[in-house]
Amino acid sequence: MALKAKAFKYGDDINTDYIISGKYKFKSNDMAAMSVHAMEELDPRYYEKVSPEGGFLVAGTNFGMGSSREQAPLVLIGSNTKAVLAKTFARIFYRNAINTGLPVVECDTDLIADGDELSLDLEAGVLKNLTQGTDIPFAPLPPVMAQLLADGGLVEHFKKHGGFAV
Amino acid sequence: MSTIPGKTIAEKIFSAHSGTDAYAGDIVVADVDFVMGQDGTTPLAIRALENMGVDEVFDPARVAVVMDHSSPSPIEGVSALHTMMREFGKKTGAKVYDVGCGVCHQLIPEAGHVVPGDLMVGCDSHTCTYGAVNVFSTGVGSTDGAAAMASGKLWFKVPDTMKVTYTGELRPGVFSKDLILALAGKIGADGATYMALEFHGPVIDALSVDARMTISNMAIEVGAKAGLMRADAKTLAWYEGRGDRAPQPVDPDADAVYASELVLDASAVGPQVAKPHAVDNVSPIEEVAGTPIAQGYIGTCTNGRLEDLEIAASILRGRKVHPDVRLIIAPASKQILLDAMEAGYIRDLVEAGAVMVSPGCGPCVGTHNGVPSDGENVISTANRNFKGRMGNSNAFIYLGSPAAVAASVIEGVITDPRQYFKGGE
């Protein structure tokens, strides 16, 4: 199934402190309340802009660098972010995103402008920039991650298989 | 002549823990020797375990949870999360380090929970710290941590390794913090993404275990998965009396294959500072000397160890913190606090004007213990200076060594610490 939404574009080296600040994330386990602060350090209006219709967060290199906080992908999901598209990702964020069910796509994001309408079909491996009328190629997930995502994340994988079956 | 390629430390540890002949790029499911979580990440791991339908951990002696990031609790929300962690410990038998014990990354090696040759994961990005004692340790999220707590296993991609060799020797007034900041400045925040770092050379050999941990701690700041060092006589001496498992040191093969190699001349490195708002925004301290500061912070998993307090005390002894500056100090563990009291460092620091806060993360993550005001500059021994990191988006954080912080809080401006060291400039 293809996800369709608008691109919200930011820069390189976006760290997890910017995705969700420490001053919020240590306070509670309530992701819905925390999600209104998603990306606040970079764009205080992120939640307001993205949550009503959903959106793709588009970035440059090293997205999700820094802290291991899993609240980062969770508040992006909570703010109706459909997927994160970046040139490269930091390692821990990438794993956390798959584990929590937030799609992440490594691609050339220079081919996307802020506000472009995108369509992403992960199963088919197709990313379209509908505004510019272009196809954007991307590498498939490593098989182990594709399996975890297909099972619905790591928790569901464990429930289904009783442990790692990769 | 052998045609079988040699292995890096990472490849050897993953081979031993997965029962495979592992090389960089392989995906393995490996046994982990220890799993750790802290108060910002454990609550989500507990929730993930509940969602998995798991109500015990694979081995209670191999799991610990630490209240360090927001500790003692500043607000009722955190109090509830701490209660949840204590109940988890009671239910599963996992070790609980309650408020005031210290920073997870000091406690785990200090207690001997990990030993050289181990593979461990922690729900905190600075878990890479124990690379300094020859442990492949890496940060993971809460769900990965929960899977490891439940099964004693986790899947990994065996990383490529970048070999970093420090040649020459450290000059007076220059410390391991300056070496790792210089590396961050050189290769950038994504210079080693997905890779392990292996640190070698006479400069590393000459460092204490405390000082080595500062370097491995910041491996994540260049994107690395681990910051590994060999276990030498110093490492093994450090482990005497710690824990009940014997170290199994792992050396790289002489013909190990490295993805890249970097040689840095430590003799050419002076005191370094990371400027706001990025850890790789590094310059020699001379370039920012004179910048006014309102607060100094000495502590954290990077630089809150006994040697760090000793260096700060040696500079501040008999001197005073500038009247316009607050100096906050958080020892990395209760044991370090006790040792620093015994050695007289705490008296020196408090008499100079320092404010002591509980062993733990202190004001590093912006939850308590010294949130800066709008427009203020802070110089800190921590590992991150992102905007908002200390709880105020309108403050500016500079990172340096404990000596740089101590010298700066006396003058009230960022100050080169070399004047306090014989042979310094």
Describe the structure.
The complex is a heterodimer of chains A (166) and B (425). Chain A is an alpha/beta fold and 166 residues long. Chain A has one domain (3-139): Aconitase, domain 4. Chain A is 31% helix and 19% strand. Chain A is built from eight helices and seven strands, in the order βααααβαβαββββαα. A seven-stranded mixed β-sheet of chain A has the order 4-3-2-1-5-6-7. The model of chain A has no long low-confidence stretch (mean pLDDT 94). Chain B is an alpha/beta fold and 425 residues long. Chain B folds into three domains: 25-157, 2-Layer Sandwich (Aconitase, domain 3), CATH 3.30.499.10; 161-230 and 256-267, Aconitase, Domain 2 (3-Layer(aba) Sandwich), CATH 3.40.1060.10; 273-419, Aconitase, domain 3, CATH 3.30.499. Chain B is 30% helix and 19% strand. Chain B has helices at residues 9-18, 42-52, 76-92, 104-110, 142-151, 176-187, 202-206, 209-217, 233-238, 300-303, 306-316, 334-342, 345-352, 402-411, and strands at 27-31, 34-38, 63-66, 95-97, 119-123, 136-139, 153-157, 161-167, 196-200, 226-228, 260-265, 272-274, 282-284, 295-299, 326-330, 354-356, 377-380, 396-399. Chain B has a five-stranded parallel β-sheet, with helices on both faces. A five-stranded parallel β-sheet of chain B has the order 16-15-14-17-18. A four-stranded parallel β-sheet of chain B has the order 10-9-8-11. In chain B, helix 2 links the parallel strand 2 and strand 3. In chain B, helix 11 runs parallel beside helix 14. Chain B is globular, with a radius of gyration of 21 Å. At the A-B interface, helix 2, helix 6 and helix 8 of A face helix 2, helix 3, helix 5 and strand 7 of B.
